[in-house]
Amino acid sequence: MSLRTLALLSCCLVLAACNKLNQENYSKLKSGMTKAEVEQLLGSPTECSGAVGFTSCTWGDEKTFVSVQYAGEKVLMFSGKGLK
Asked: Where in this chain does the record put each Outer membrane protein assembly factor BamE domain (predicted)?
């Protein structure tokens, strides 16, 4: 195997491992988790909004996403779409 092929293969593996938005991590989400625990699992959210003690954060885009709703600092409910 050439050095170039090996370097390309290594880069692909690193990039695939960096994507935290997947079915495996989604299945680890639980009601009652803290925001810090969710962000450790999924990384920083793409967008957050909220009012009066409730917050909704989204990771991803229109095709592949995870949405988490918080009451205070704890997960109330969550949903996902297009995860692999």
From this structure: 19-46
84: Cβ contacts below 8 Å, ≥ 6 apart: 22, 23, 64
Q: What is the pLDDT of residues 11-70, one digit of tens each?
A: 444 444 468 999 999 999 999 999 999 999 999 999 999 999 999 999 999 999 999 999
Name the token pair of 44.
Answer: 């920083």
- Phi, psi at residue 31, to the nearest 5°? -60, 140
Q: Which segments of 1-84 are extended strands (E)?
A: 47-51, 54-60, 65-71, 74-81
Quickly name the fold that domain 23-81 has. Beta-lactamase Inhibitory Protein; Chain:B, domain 1 (3.30.1450)
Residues facing 62 on adjacent strands = none
The position carrying tokens 């949405």 is 67
The length of the chain, given as a count of residues: 84
